[in-house]
Give the backbone structure.
Amino acid sequence: MLTDLPNHWVGPINQLVKDLGYNGSVLVADEGDPVSEHGKLVFKNTRHVVDNVIQHMALTAKIYVAVVIDADRSFQACAVRLGKDEFCIVMWMAATIRTSAAMSRLLATPAAAEFFSLSLQVSAVSDVAQGENTFAAYDAISLLPRIDLGDVGNSFRRYLEFMATEWLVMHEIGHIVNGHLAVGSTANGLTYILEQDPAADRDYNITSQALEVDADCFANMFCLQYSLGRPLDVEKDEASQDEILVARLKPYLFSMLSVLRSFDHAPLKVETLFDSDHPPGCIRMSYLLAQMLTMQSETTIDFKGANLVEVGGLTAVTLERAISQATGINSQGGNFLPAVSIPDEVFRKPVLSRWARIYPELNAIKLTPFKLAPPQYPPA
Ligand SMILES: [Zn+2]
């Protein structure tokens, strides 16, 4: 199966994709080719994640899944409101293909081998990425062919990819169940929230960034719990509870941070922070690591004796080293450290004040049975 979207919605979603400037369409017919095979896998994994949440939250709304094939290999995902209690999550197939290619190359590096204690049989890497810095080069490796990592390595890579997909899907579900479509954009009669939507209006961008942070936190909270509850193939019987927890945490963090890292295309500039409707990937990375510390101190999640600052910092540094080693480019590094040191006044205050302002509107239409994150600042 490639989609469960009712036939009469396929046309309007295709029109929306086109209106948004994408060269793609919803996969419907199984052609028996590799594209259809991959499309079925994306649909199955996405459906699995959505069904899990529907059951977990006892939701009655219908959430369909559509997979888009895009000739330009754009990386995109979208939450759409179709009608009353009817929604659709649209996943671009390129998102999973490119994540897979990049992940194989990151895992083939000495930095990843050391971090995950892996010894993989990796054949010589022929193609090398091109780019003026690690941002361009990291983008470029996702378009290269995937590297074969051998049985153990490929299986581990598939696990990391599943978690990356799970995180992306949970982020979209966050937009739907937390009521974000109350303030979404509208085109062709459909309300939607798009990832990487270029917008020029600073005020609109602050609202949008508040929603993105909330969807990120929603995904992080659920995906962390799922990841920590899933035994790994390689777990040792003699490992302590703390060691097991850290061993399950590291692949999740690596996959989640590697997705967010791919959203940055240039060094962080504080002056242009609100020129986009999404916060820079590095700020999202640092926000989610900070959210984990909050969840630990509030015991929302039992992290056992894990030192989250150490594990989170080490994962971010390993990811950056792996990107340099995989791309052969060791220029300016990433944005994670500059993002961690951004003052609250510059990002948190404007974005969370906006969260406080839209909070009543979101609360009125949210689907989740759980409470939304309470406002921490006066509305503005
Ligand atoms: Zn989003």
In short: The first strand starts at residue 24 and ends at 26.
